Amino acid sequence: MVARTITLADGAGGERMHELVRKHVLARFSEVRPVEIGLNRLDDAAIVDGVAFTTDSYTVRPLFFPGGDIGSLAVAGTINDLAVMGAEPLAVSCAMIVEEGFSLEDFDRVLASMAETSRKAGVPIVTGDLKVVERGAAQQLFINTSGIGRRTRRLDHNFAVARRHRQVRDLWLTDGNLAAGDALIVTGTVGDHGIALISFREGYGFETSVQSDAAPLHTMMAKALEVGGLVAAKDLTRGGLANALNEWSEKSAVGLRVRESAIPLSQGVVSACEMLGLDPLEIGNEGKALLGVVPAMAEKVLSALQATPEGAKAAIIGEATDEVRGVVLETVVGGSRPLLPPSGDPIPRIC
Amino acid sequence: MVARTITLADGAGGERMHELVRKHVLARFSEVRPVEIGLNRLDDAAIVDGVAFTTDSYTVRPLFFPGGDIGSLAVAGTINDLAVMGAEPLAVSCAMIVEEGFSLEDFDRVLASMAETSRKAGVPIVTGDLKVVERGAAQQLFINTSGIGRRTRRLDHNFAVARRHRQVRDLWLTDGNLAAGDALIVTGTVGDHGIALISFREGYGFETSVQSDAAPLHTMMAKALEVGGLVAAKDLTRGGLANALNEWSEKSAVGLRVRESAIPLSQGVVSACEMLGLDPLEIGNEGKALLGVVPAMAEKVLSALQATPEGAKAAIIGEATDEVRGVVLETVVGGSRPLLPPSGDPIPRIC
User: What ipTM was estimated for this complex?
Assistant: First the structure.
């Protein structure tokens, strides 16, 4: 008998990772004391004593890519995990694991990029850690950013609006909050980050002008919350839109119907996906979110999103419904098919 | 000209790391908005909107060692960074970077150990992340734990007691809070964690019974705060007691006089240090803290510490004074010498 080992697929953000996490992590990390939203919810952030709290480690390669680098990605990614819970990001941490021999110039470039992203976002980096390991014990540089955020009056207003229309389970933008009728909004084109990375890596023999979409989304989210009526939000990282939709359908116990033709896609992503045989709906993004909005507010939220730079290409792509089970994609050619969660990640090491 | 690269010494927790951090990190990460205690303070945790927030990545090897493993170390270490600020630890995160091919059995052992440490400490693990990288891109397993904590009435009481005796700069247990006259207390024997690790690694050709001291200190800290009069606390990780004392002297701009004979040391650590030519005061610990206490309360705080399992061997080792500059060690043989900060870490990868 060969002992089971951890494989790349176990960490790819798809079904296999969820199974590993449920069976090996959640089974052990049962809540030690009740918290508002804990690990068992597997949401974008936890809520403890009213504080939103999230963590992500970044192992992206290459470290520098069109539209960003590991530093901007790490700061934006953690801000986004707070923002899509409805929290106002307060502060981010920065813990670096550096391989001995890593160039000080590249180290400086990454730090400058983190600093710029933090400054532009108005979210300070307040605490950190540095570990250096022997050559070969890590690959260049890994960064962990964790973050904390708080509840705002804006979020209270958002839920006050939503509750004029129906009951809401959690008063944060959780995966379990959807109900039949809710509109599904994607805040822009999907697949850009993953395609920018894979096209930039060596050996793929093609070039595109696709840039990573890595960007903090908290300002855009604030504008949407000011309109009100959001019940759920999720950033479309590993596993892409296909994964996010399936998580929502499962956690909210509601069907989702999505119109393929309504999903925003850039021409570069479409071309690259055709060439590589990839599904853009399974590809990770770092500056896009999926929103669930009570139907009466959907158009107003959409307009507010479209008025922001990050949400200019936002679109309503479908709705929650009791008429289907799981996620059903109405295809461009007129039929419909189940949109299954990706089993692994088609492009490894994108974040 | 050869481009400068990051070296192991840059991450060793000593003077060289402090220089790198000051020059390359702090220079860039100037605070984006004012926070109570921010990165520029380089303290054990930041304080933002009344929330204590800290992060640490663990790259210890081997993963399993006498008295603990990377999992128990990570949970205890982050709890301690919160506890030594005077905060009550509320929650911890867990972000893992796993090398492809890592044994699922060892993965499970680490998770079980984290869960047990969390449960015993009463501090839940509420959010997490998992990344798997290709074989050779990381060494087995790295863990980042970040943590959040809050202010308690106990901490307010502690400072009310301290302020009966003198002015206090920060109302958290910061490195900059010491003043001449304050007593220095070490909460137990020093050097155990580093010696347990090095003696367990292959090729050193000796064995000891020294166990890692890795343990959460928040319960012990709570008992000390209930007495009151603490102004500063610091856990004695990388760089050990020598580093902590020098940081305090510099940040509080006060001299420190330490009696070598008063520093608690286990016989195993003394023997191992003699054999290896190491200074136990420079060796990292994972379950010991240095406390600064207003003089009138020192004996009472000491008694309270000694009544706890973690603090049973606590001792007053010296005091802050304007009569010396920097840190001066009164040696066992009767002389005195400057105790300098370690330039690097005598034992790499201990946390």
Answer: 0.96
Q: Which of residues 97-136 of A touch B (CB under 8 A)?
A: 97-105, 107-108, 111-112, 114-115, 118-119, 121-134, 136
From CA B336, how far away is CA B331, in angstroms rounded? Answer: 5
What distance in Å separates the CA atoms of residue B50 and residue A302, rounded to the nearest whole number?
A: 35
| Residue B113 contacts residue B71 (beta carbons within 8 Å) | yes
What are residue B233's DSSP bridge partners?
Answer: B291
Which among B259, B187, B174 is positioned nearest to B224, based on CA atoms?
B187
The span from the CA of B165 to the CA of B151, in Å, is 22
* Cβ–Cβ gap A139/B137 under 8 Å: yes
Residues A274 and A280: their CA atoms lie apart, in Å, by 9
Top CATH class of B8-150 equals alpha beta
**What angle do the packed helices B298-306 and B218-227 form, to 10 degrees?**
140
pTM: 0.97
Beta bridge partner(s), residue A98: A132, A141
For A326-338, write each residue's pLDDT tens digit: 999 999 999 999 9
- Where are chain B's structural domains? 8-150, 153-338
| B17 closest CA partner among A97, A286, A287, A130 | A130
Partner-chain contact A97 B57, CB within 8 Å:
yes
Helix (H, G, I), strand (E, B) or coil at B120: helix
- Nearest C-alpha neighbor of A51 from the set B148, B46, B123: B148
* Eight-class DSSP state of B13: S
Strands (E), B137-296: 141-150, 183-186, 230-235, 255-259, 289-293
Q: What is the mean pLDDT of chain B?
A: 95
| Cis omega (within 30 of 0) for bond into A62 | yes
Cα B19 off chain centre by? 19
Chain A, residues 291-350, CB within 8 A of chain B, namely 348-349
Q: A153-338 falls under which CATH superfamily?
A: PurM-like C-terminal domain (3.90.650.10)
Q: Which residues contact A202 (CB under 8 A, 6 or more apart)?
A: none
Asked if residues B43 and B175 have their Cβ atoms less than 8 Å apart, the reply is yes
Distances (CA, A) of A259 to A37, A59, A316, A330: 31, 33, 9, 5
Domains A8-150 and A153-338 agree in fold: no
* Nearest chain B residue to A55, by CA: B128
Sheet holding A289-293, edge to edge: A230-235, A289-293, A183-186, A315-321, A255-259, A327-330, A336-338
B316-341 pLDDT, tens digit each: 999 999 999 999 999 999 999 999 99
| Subunit contact A97:B94, Cβ cutoff 8 A | no
Report, as ranges of residue numbers, the positions in chain A whose pLDDT lies below 70. Answer: 1-2, 202-207
Residue B330, class by beta-carbon neighbours within 10 Å (0-12 exposed, 13-18 middle, 19+ buried)? Answer: middle
Report yes or no: B138 at the A interface, CB cutoff 8 Å: yes
Q: Per the CB < 8 Å rule, is A137 touching B136?
A: no
Tokens encoding B224: 């000390």
